[in-house]
Amino acid sequence: FGDRAFCFFCAVSALLAAPLWYMTLSGGISFETCMGFLLAEYLVAESWLGPAIAALQSAVPPDRRGTAQGVFSSLTALGNLLPAGLGLLAAGDLNSGFQVSVTACYVLSGLCFLVAADSFPKDQPLPREP
Fold first, then answer.
1. Would you call 128 helix, strand, or coil by DSSP?
2. What whole-number distance in Å separates Cα of residue 97 and Cα of residue 89?
3. More confident residue, 55 or 122
4. In percent, how much of the chain has pLDDT > 90?
5. pTM for this entry
6. Residue 16 in contact with residue 44, Cβ under 8 Å?
7. 14 and 115 Cβ atoms separated by less than 8 Å
């Protein structure tokens, strides 16, 4: 898989996190079960950062890596605005708002990583910095 493996790992992590997050906020389950889902969600959802940065750094020329990292960090910060927007929901709608929106974002993220993986060369590794 070469450098594509980074993107595949991130895609699998995001796609596994989606149902785990959804189940975390599902009604009718015990607190302990909810915390088990949350633990599993954190384990898979938070493991994507390193491989995502590695894929980004290997995909851009060395002289543009700083800019690429800056754009990545800015988009990550922009994504942190979602909870602020959801805070405008009525108190009774917060649970379902977070459940649906975060799950949808995980699925979208996984699909984006699959598209990114397809953009890497399939039979040769990318050139490395000397």
1. coil
2. 8
3. 55
4. 45
5. 0.79
6. yes
7. no
Q: Could you give the CA distance from residue 125 to residue 128 in angstroms, rounded to a whole number?
A: 9
Cα–Cα distance, 41 to 57 (Å, whole number) = 26
How far is 106 from 18, CA to CA, in rounded Å? 5
Which of 45-54, 85-94, 113-122 has the lowest average pLDDT?
Answer: 85-94
Angle made by CA atoms 37, 43, 48, in degrees to the nearest 5: 130
Q: Which residues of 61-73 are buried (b: 16+ CB within 10 A; e: fewer)?
A: eeeebeeeeeeee
Q: Between the CA of residue 62 and those of 39, 65, 78, 90, 127, what are the distances in Å? A: 37, 5, 25, 47, 10
Can you give the residue ranges of every domain in the chain? Answer: 4-119
Q: What is the pLDDT of residues 60-86, one digit of tens each?
A: 899 999 999 999 889 888 877 877 777
DSSP 30: -
The two tokens of residue 87 are: 């805070």
Tokens of 29: 């389950």
- Residue pair 113/51 in contact by the 8 Å Cβ criterion: no
